[in-house]
Each structure stands twice: as C-alpha cells, then as structure tokens.
Design goal:
Blueprint lengths: L4 E11 L8 E17 L3 E8 L12 H13 L4 E7 L10 H16 L6 H16 L5 H8 L2 E5 L6 E5 L5 E8 L5 H6 L7 H20 L2 H7 L6 H4 L6 H10 L4 E4 L6 E6 L1 H17 L5 E7 L6 E3 L1
Parallel strand pairs: 3-4
Antiparallel strand pairs: 1-2, 1-11, 2-4, 2-5, 5-6, 7-9, 7-10, 8-9
Helix pairs in contact: 1-2, 1-3, 2-3, 2-4, 6-7, 9-10
Bound molecules: L-homoserine.
L-homoserine binds next to helix 4 and helix 5.
Length: 312
C-alpha cells in the first residue's frame, strides 16, 4: 500500500439468523472484502479495479462499493475525489452479505481517508445506499452487522434505521456451509410471500423476542427453540440444494439450530463451542456431499466477530 492510501476490511455476515428476517445479523471472523482508497484531484469516485470476482461485478456506478463511497463524499461535503480498489475476499450471491461487505469496506476506507468525519449513523446510511443499488432494498441486517460487528438488531427503516447491539454468549460459535451455487438476493426477495398469516406472524415475533432474551441470558435451550423462521425460509429453502439433509446433519452433530444464512444458499448452524462447531461443520459438508449436491466448503467462526476496520 502506498502512502496516502487507506485499506479497510469488512467481514461477511449472517443475516436473518432464523426468525429475524431483515432485523437480525451477526458478523463472521472471515471471509470479507477489502477496499483500498486514495485521494484524487478529480471529483467523484473512480473504481480503478475489482479483484477476486472473476470479472463479474460492474466496474462503474452500479457497483455497491462505488455507490457507498459516493454517498460518503456527498455526506462529508468534499470537493475532491477518491479512487478505489475493491478486493473481493468472499463469494458472490452466497448469502454471506457480499454486497454489504463491499459497501461497508468502501465507507470505512473513504471516511478514514477524509479524516473520519461521519457519525456511525451516517456511515450506516452510506453503506445502505450501496445495498439499495445492489439488491433493490436498503435492508440493514448485513451492512449493520458488518459495520458494527457483534450481533445486531435492526430497528426502523430508511433514514430512521438504527441498530441495537446484542450480547453474545461466551463460546457461541457458527458452523457454516457454503454450497457452490449462486442465489441472488434480489431474486430471493422476489420469492418471498407478499403477506404473512397472522398465526405465523405471532409465532415469528415471539421467536425474535425469545432469541434476543436467549442471547441476554446465555440460554442455549431457548436459543435453539427460537431459531425457527416461519416467514422467509419456507419460501426460499426449496431452492437451496441439500438444505434439509444439511440441517438434519447439523442437529445430529449437536448444533443448537440452523437455517439459511441471509437469502442462501449458505447454511449456518449455531453451536456451543468451537470444537462442537468443527464437528457440525464436518457433518454438514459430509451430508451435503453424500446427497450429491455438488461442491461446498465449510468453516467455523465465532458468532459476533469484530466489525469493519482500517487495516495496515
Ligand atoms: N435480510 C436479507 C434477506 C438478507 O433475507 O433478503 C440478504 O442477505
């Protein structure tokens, strides 16, 4: 990195976390995206290069990092421009918050380059502009968790979006399976029901309350019973190869519960401790492969890892 450049990393995230469609998310330790930003004498954003995406992502104002960086320039009211390089460190359309990580890394890099002028709320709003460009909606469960780190609850929407930081029980660990297929969040949102039966809604908000309580009390049994999603997962899971076998394998190997990470295809499982999570990750991958669903990789991460930051 040359002098005058700022490099920022933003982690992948698990959004929804079962029952919390668009309102719950937590940060993973890895993978994540990196943005390098430097000042230019021109105006606006120049996306100099995107690496690690196989040439698939737009290199212009349609890129989520570009949009988020432009929002930072506008919020900070600066006259000069920035040049960005985006290094994708995570798979696209994977359910791991890829577009959010790019937007958040751009926001953190550009804000730091300008002398850290923006408040947390302004940084979140800029990252959500990136999400809006990538996905069509500025949902904050991925971007909020990637920016803040930890485990977050999203409240409000649009300009009124805010986050509450939730406690994470000691040793709560995530086992993750990433099937090597792509599901675009934009498409997956179109698969959602346009209305929800009142009985499902009642179950769902009861589960969200129970999950938040379980995190506060470190109550694993309550957490396990609260992870059920009656709204998004039933509509999306049929499109995810091996979903049922993989979740069953996670449970048999001792996971507290599992579900779609974001809009999928990745599948997360929450576990008590790293050793258990390693076993669960192995079991999930073995079940997926036994089912003949193709390639997948699995890994573990603490739940609620640190959020986006400037790195050397
Ligand atoms: N809450 C979003 C959704 C997350 O489920 O559509 C997308 O990763």
């Amino acid at each position: 990195m040359s002098a005058g450049e700022i490099r920022a990393f933003a982690p992948a995230t698990v959004a929804n976390v079962g029952c919390g469609f668009d309102v719950l998310g937590f940060a993973l330790e890895a993978p994540g995206d990196t943005v390098v930003a430097r000042r230019t004498d021109g105006r606006g954003v120049t996306l100099v290069d995107v690496r690690g995406d196989g040439g698939v992502l737009p290199r212009d104002e349609r890129n989520t990092a570009f949009v988020a960086a432009a929002a930072v320039l506008q919020s900070a009211g600066v006259e000069h421009g920035v040049a960005l390089t985006l290094e994708k460190g995570m798979p696209l359309a994977s359910g791991l918050g890829s577009s959010a990580a790019s937007a958040v890394a751009a926001v953190v890099a550009v804000d730091a380059l300008l002398g850290s002028r923006l408040s947390f709320a302004e940084r979140l709003r800029c990252a959500l502009e990136g999400e809006r460009a990538a996905v069509g909606t500025p949902h904050a469960d991925n971007a909020g968790a990637s920016l803040a780190g930890g485990f977050v609850l999203v409240r409000g929407s649009g300009q009124d979006t805010s986050l509450l930081s939730l406690p994470v029980p000691e040793n709560l660990t995530c086992a993750m399976l990433h099937p090597h297929v792509e599901i675009s969040t934009r498409d997956a949102r179109q698969a959602l029901p346009t209305s929800v039966a009142l009985s499902d809604a009642v179950t769902q908000w009861g589960n969200v309350g129970a999950l938040v309580t379980a995190l506060h009390r470190s109550d694993h049994a309550l957490l396990a019973s609260a992870l059920v999603d009656r709204v998004a997962e039933p509509a999306r899971a049929p499109r995810v190869p091996g979903f049922i076998e993989t979740c069953a394998a996670a449970r048999e190997a001792g996971a507290l519960g599992s579900g779609l990470s974001g809009s999928g295809p990745s599948i997360f499982a929450l576990c008590d401790g790293r050793e258990r999570a390693e076993e669960v990750a192995r079991a999930m991958r073995a079940a997926f492969e036994r089912g003949g669903h193709g390639a997948a990789n699995a890994w573990v991460s603490p739940v609620g890892a640190p959020g986006a930051r400037v790195i050397p």
